[in-house]
Amino acid sequence: MAVTVKLFAHLRERHGFGETRLEAWSGGSVGDVWRQVSGEDELPAHVLAAVNLDYARADTAVADGDEVAFFPPVTGGRGRPR
Amino acid sequence: MMIEVRDTGFDPWSEVAAYQQAVLGVGQFGATAVFIGTMRDFNDDDRVAAMYLEHYPGMTERALERIADEHVHAHDLLDVCVVHRVGDITPGEPIVVVAAWAAHRREAFAACRGIMEDLKSKAPFWKREERASGSRWVEHNTPG
């Protein structure tokens, strides 16, 4: 199994891909997924995340088969949705 | 309830009329509030020639459904219709239509406004503007 990772808007352009797969996922958090795909230590405050189409946080657990997405604040919103 | 994300242009007036005729019962509703968002050709005092609206297929629809559902219950709506455009859009084209049907105007107005505000802050859409100065992603909203 694997984890599917999607990037949107300027994150997709900056990192050069819209979708990728992390093979042989052995468990971890949204923050761990971000580290693997971006090479950055921490999920930046201005990057939002979702797991399986629901908003998630850096410490949300990611399981085999999950879809994790990273994106900028939605246009129209300042900061994170409640 | 009708929630749709479309990558082609649409006429919001005929969408609302067609949905009302097909779904709403004659005599049931006393108030219909409609909001239509249309693309401007300016932002931050700069000319905008076109824009590209990106969404997250699956999550965007789910977020819109949740928002609509919340307001249907909070405002005792009879029905709601939301159609949102994505892709390449030029000035003058409709971007979004929200229609709320209720027994009375207070609920219809409140729900239409509430759905729009939640849509702008919670539904995953990202806007890239094509301006004279270049292309850029927009990360804030004009105050409602």
Number of strands of chain A: 7
Main sheet makeup of chain B:
5 strands, antiparallel
Measured by DSSP, the beta-strand proportion of chain A falls in 25-35%
Termini separation of chain B comes to 25 Å
Question: Roughly how many Å apart are the termini of chain A?
Answer: 32 Å
The ordered string of helix (H) and strand (E) elements of chain B is EHEEEHEEEHEE
Query: Mind telling me the CATH superfamily name of chain B?
Result: Molybdopterin biosynthesis MoaE subunit
CATH topology of chain A: Ubiquitin-like (UB roll)
> What Rg of chain B do the Cα atoms give?
16 Å
User: What number of domains of chain B?
Assistant: 1
Regions of chain B with pLDDT < 50 over 5+ consecutive residues? none
Q: How many structural domains can be distinguished in the coordinates of chain A?
A: 1
Shape call of chain B:
elongated
Q: What's the CATH H-level superfamily name of chain A?
A: Beta-grasp domain
Explain what this protein looks like in three dimensions:
The complex is a heterodimer of chains A (82) and B (144). By secondary structure, chain A is an alpha+beta fold. Chain A has one domain: Beta-grasp domain (Ubiquitin-like (UB roll), Roll), CATH 3.10.20. Helix content of chain A is 20%, strand content 33%. Chain A has two helices and seven strands; from the N terminus they run E-H-E-E-H-E-E-E-E. In chain A, strand 4 and strand 5 form a beta hairpin. The longest helix of chain A is centred in the middle third of the chain and has 9 residues. Chain B is α+β, with helices and mostly antiparallel strands and 144 residues long. Chain B has one domain: Molybdopterin biosynthesis MoaE subunit (Aldehyde Oxidoreductase, domain 3, Alpha-Beta Complex), CATH 3.90.1170. Chain B is built from three helices and nine strands. The interface between A and B is medium-sized, with 17 and 20 residues.
